[in-house]
């Protein structure tokens, strides 16, 4: 028996890539809601802070004297002491770090396995990880929470994050930025949907004065498993050579920044372009995530009583102090909103002005805003200060959404998902460095007598300096040397590993109408997103109330 006939005899599994090559009646606009379903679920990562305080209040009346000296290692296994907020917040850093690592490790496998199989595994890891973490909370074992939510959940984060990228870019060669912007907008908006749901569930499952954290994590784990799995089964991959009707390929002559060739994963990370774009993302994210991590205390420290039009904080009543905290919480709602919307806006704009120019805009505008924010604080211009933060956060989210299309322009589309998987290790680094940098500088200045309303001045100037380095890195990005392109034989082999030879005729595939299925798919993801959007705007209203 020949090799070809033997391979043809192998049955195609339910999750295999060759099973989901699009047929003639498929419509490409069914792919973005599948991607959104996954990213709205894993985007709850940004809303995990709603668990920190409730997780520190699970045990009533512990021995305060003995628990006060409990270190992190002891807390991992203790069943008699409440966990401190710093002891649980490292869960966020853990799954963000694992997100990048897992994307780097399994990005190449994902290209061959396809988005359905990767999506289902992401559902098992993120949903199952939350269930394991909830069980850990129920028996008060912090190490189990780190294992479930942090390590296993982090793998689900990584696989879920990169799963739609390659598929979307191949479906939308005419709108690469917009397509990835839709999906990655979901990650920015996941907290708008998930955080209010988590708060409601914790109240609903509260018992004997203790918040229902354990049951909430388990319930959300099950919900996310179902929704991510549904998204994974909604994926179809484009046949080789497929293009939308009336499509005209972009002219490579446009600064040579859009290639029609392809670079293999194993060669891409050895090019200077990969590491320059890695730094571009890392520096942009470091500056943005630093603001996200300290937005609420920053607003309170810089403006304090002036948020209410009062000069001295010493004269504030408890009700007025609560109003300041509520106003700062409104900023958190605005951050979620602008982080999410900015992903679609900037990524779509990059289709018109180019990826490199989009990042030029991020860095130049960001430098100006970071340098002006201390002045806004000194002048008491709270509204302008908040508006600056909102614009910065659109560019933070826009950086994430634009980077997959940037990679596709530079390295081609064949292995862009795998290359993107390795590149998001920049996010893992920035997710640790940014918050640590701003918190460390703030604390050092407070320890040395700097007034609360001045402790962020130096930090904001440092962030502007990081963006200036990013500007230089972006300017140095050039087209890849042709010696790195895959040969025809290498490209054919890579496509055979993806079983693309089983595809139907590209000229007749995926020409179906939108239909009722399309409307249902978009409503299924659109309604929860709009509810989250309403809640975020409602919270933000407190900032201006």
Summarize it:
It is built from 20 helices and no strands.
Task: Report how far the terminal alpha carbons are from each other.
Answer: 77 Å
Examine the secondary-structure arrangement and name the CATH architecture: Up-down Bundle
Radius of gyration: 24 Å
Count of the separate structural domains? 1
What is the CATH superfamily classification? MFS general substrate transporter like domains
Calculate the mean pLDDT score and round it: 87
Helix content: over 70%
Reported by name, the CATH topology is Growth Hormone, Chain: A
Number of alpha- plus pi-helical segments: 20
The chain-level structural class is mainly alpha
Order of helices and strands: HHHHHHHHHHHHHHHHHHHH
Key terms for this structure?
single chain; 70% helix; Growth Hormone, Chain: A; mainly alpha; 545 residues
Describe this structure in words.
By secondary structure, this protein is mainly α. It has one domain (21-60, 94-243, 254-487, 494-544): Growth Hormone, Chain: A (Up-down Bundle). It contains 20 helices and no strands. The protein has helices at residues 3-9, 31-42, 52-55, 64-67, 72-77, 85-113, 115-138, 142-171, 176-204, 213-234, 265-268, 272-303, 318-353, 355-379, 382-411, 416-423, 425-447, 457-475, 488-497, 515-544. Helix 15 (382-411) packs across helix 16. The model is unreliable at 1-9 (pLDDT under 50).
């Amino acid at each position: 028996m020949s090799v070809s006939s033997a391979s043809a005899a192998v049955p195609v599994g339910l999750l295999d890539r060759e099973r989901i090559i699009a047929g003639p009646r498929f419509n490409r606009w069914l792919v973005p809601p599948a991607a959104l379903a996954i990213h709205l679920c894993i985007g709850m990562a940004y809303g995990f802070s709603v668990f920190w305080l409730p997780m520190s209040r699970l045990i009533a009346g512990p021995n305060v004297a003995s628990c006060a000296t409990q270190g992190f290692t002891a807390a991992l296994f203790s069943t008699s002491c409440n966990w401190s907020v710093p002891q649980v917040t490292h869960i966020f850093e853990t799954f963000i770090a694992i997100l990048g690592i897992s994307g780097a490790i399994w990005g190449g496998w994902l290209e061959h396995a396809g988005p359905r199989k990767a999506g289902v595994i992401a559902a098992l890891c993120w949903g199952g990880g939350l269930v394991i973490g909830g069980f850990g909370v129920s028996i008060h074992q912090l190490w189990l929470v780190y294992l479930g939510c942090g390590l296993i959940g982090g793998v689900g984060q990584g696989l879920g994050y990169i799963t739609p990228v390659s598929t979307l870019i191949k479906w939308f060669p005419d709108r690469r930025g917009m397509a990835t912007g839709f999906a990655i907008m979901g990650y920015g908006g996941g907290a708008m949907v998930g955080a209010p749901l988590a708060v409601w569930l914790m109240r609903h499952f509260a018992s004997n004065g203790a918040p229902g954290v354990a049951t909430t994590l388990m319930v959300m784990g099950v919900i996310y498993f179902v929704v991510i799995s549904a998204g994974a089964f909604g994926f179809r991959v484009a046949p080789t050579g497929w293009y939308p009707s009336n499509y005209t390929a972009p002219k490579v002559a446009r600064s040579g920044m859009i290639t029609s060739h392809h670079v293999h994963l194993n060669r891409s990370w050895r090019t200077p372009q990969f590491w320059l774009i890695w730094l571009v993302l890392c520096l942009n994210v470091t500056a943005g995530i630093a603001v996200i991590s300290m937005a609420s205390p920053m607003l309170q420290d810089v403006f304090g009583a002036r948020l209410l039009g009062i000069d001295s904080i010493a004269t504030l009543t408890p009700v007025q102090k609560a109003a300041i905290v509520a106003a700062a919480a409104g900023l958190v709602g605005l951050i979620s909103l602008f982080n999410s919307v900015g992903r679609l806006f900037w990524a779509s704009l990059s289709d018109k002005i180019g990826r490199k120019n989009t990042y030029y805009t991020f860095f130049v505008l960001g430098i100006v805003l970071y340098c002006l924010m201390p002045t806004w604080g000194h002048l008491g211009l709270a509204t302008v200060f908040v508006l600056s933060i909102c614009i910065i956060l659109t560019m933070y989210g826009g950086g994430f959404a634009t980077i997959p299309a940037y990679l596709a322009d530079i390295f081609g589309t064949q292995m862009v998902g795998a290359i993107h998987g390795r590149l998001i290790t920049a996010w893992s680094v920035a997710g640790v460095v940014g918050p640590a940098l701003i918190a460390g500088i703030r604390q050092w200045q407070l320890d040395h007598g700097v007034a609360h309303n001045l402790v962020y001045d130096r930090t904001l100037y440092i962030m502007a300096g990081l963006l200036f380095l990013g500007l230089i890195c972006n300017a140095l990005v050039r087209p890849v040397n042709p010696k790195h392109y895959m040969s025809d034989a290498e490209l054919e082999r890579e496509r055979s590993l993806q079983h693309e030879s089983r595809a139907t005729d590209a000229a007749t595939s995926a020409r179906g109408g939108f239909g009722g299925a399309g409307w249902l798919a978009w409503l299924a993801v659109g309604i929860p997103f709009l509810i989250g959007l309403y809640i975020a705007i409602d919270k933000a209203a407190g900032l201006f109330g």
